[in-house]
Amino acid sequence: MYRNLVYLICAILLLGAGSAQAVSKRELEERIVRLERLIEQQSEMFLRMQRLQQEMRAIRGDQEVLDHTLGTVKRRQQEIYRDLDDRIGKLERAAASTAVEAGPDMATDVEEDNAAGMEEQQLYQQAFEHLRKLEYPQSIKGFRSYLTTYPEGRYAARAQYWLGEIRYVRGAYKQAVAEYRKLVENYPGSAKLPEAMLKIGLSYRELGKGEAARKQLAALVARFPDSPEAAEAAKHLK
User: Fold this and answer.
1) Residue 181 belongs to domain with CATH number
2) What is the pLDDT of residues 99-146, one digit of tens each?
3) End-to-end CA distance of the chain
4) Is the Cβ–Cβ distance between 142 and 127 less than 8 Å?
5) How much is the pTM?
6) What is the DSSP letter of 209?
7) What is the DSSP letter of 24?
8) Please, which residues have CB within 8 angstroms of residue 139's CB and are 6 or more apart in sequence?
9) How many CB atoms lie within 10 A of CB 160?
10) Residue (of 200, 166, 169, 165) closest to 80 by Cα position
11) Confidence class of residue 64 from pLDDT cuts 50, 70 and 90?
């Protein structure tokens, strides 16, 4: 059928030209072959154009997916930055508040304590001063040094709490859990215990450990039902 179509096209062209000259069969065959090649080339070009169009559509589709993914990543990054900024702000305010509250107490301690007590106070205060300036590596080193020297000291629970807070505010949730747990286990009478339990639960949530987070938050609500931390934990449990 394809060859008949070619013959028909050639016949029409010859008739249209009105040529009176006889055309040999061989010449006609040659013309047909050339015409077939031309049609084949055009068909190949058409197929290539179709493939290019399909590839272009696929590329546009991939680009749309990439743009959507990139937009999602940017939004998540902005949320993380805002959250981190908020946490650092809270840490700064808490540090400033603790510094104000600790001033009179420490002044009294200086009057009552001996030289050893004053050395303990200074060691803690040095670490805390680094924290106030947001010098986290130096603060971590200072609090660890204090806890090594005075594991049962007057400020031991506070030092352990700040070690957890520094890890938490910097997004090191696995390390934060470890530090907060030391506070829960070693200083069960600390006033910072409810907050430490809350931060353990929130850290588990950030680590993708939903079940562990729920158990921790539920334990906080059960142990300290009237605390502000329990109220916040209840919100997360909902």
Assistant:
1) 1.25.40.10
2) 444 444 444 444 444 566 788 899 999 999 998 888 999 999 999 999
3) 74
4) yes
5) 0.55
6) -
7) -
8) 127, 128, 130, 131, 162, 166
9) 27
10) 169
11) confident
Close Cβ partners of 155 (under 8 Å, ≥ 6 residues apart): 120, 121, 124, 146
- Check residue 219 and give its pLDDT: 94
Residue 182 CA to residue 187 CA, distance in Å, equals 8
Residue 8: inside a domain? no
37 burial via Cβ count (<10 Å: 0-12, 13-18, 19+):
exposed
Q: Provide the pLDDT for residue 12.
A: 52
List Cα–Cα distances, 107 to 100, 114, 142, in angstroms: 12, 13, 21
Could you tell me which residues come within 8 angstroms of residue 209 by beta carbon, excluding any fewer than 6 positions away?
A: none
The identity of residue 113, as a single letter, is: D
For CA atoms 7, 8, 11, 12, give the dihedral sign.
negative
Residue 174 resides in a domain: yes
Q: Are 127 and 146 in contact (CB under 8 A)?
A: yes
Residue 51 lies in a domain: no
- Of 88-97, 174-183, 200-209, where does mean pLDDT reach its minimum? 88-97
pLDDT interval class at 75 (50, 70, 90): low
The answer to whether residue 167 sits within a structural domain is yes
Cα distances (Å, whole numbers) of residue 105 to 30, 97, 147: 110, 13, 20
Nearest 5°: phi and psi at 155? Answer: -110, 15
Full domain range(s) for residue 171: 113-237
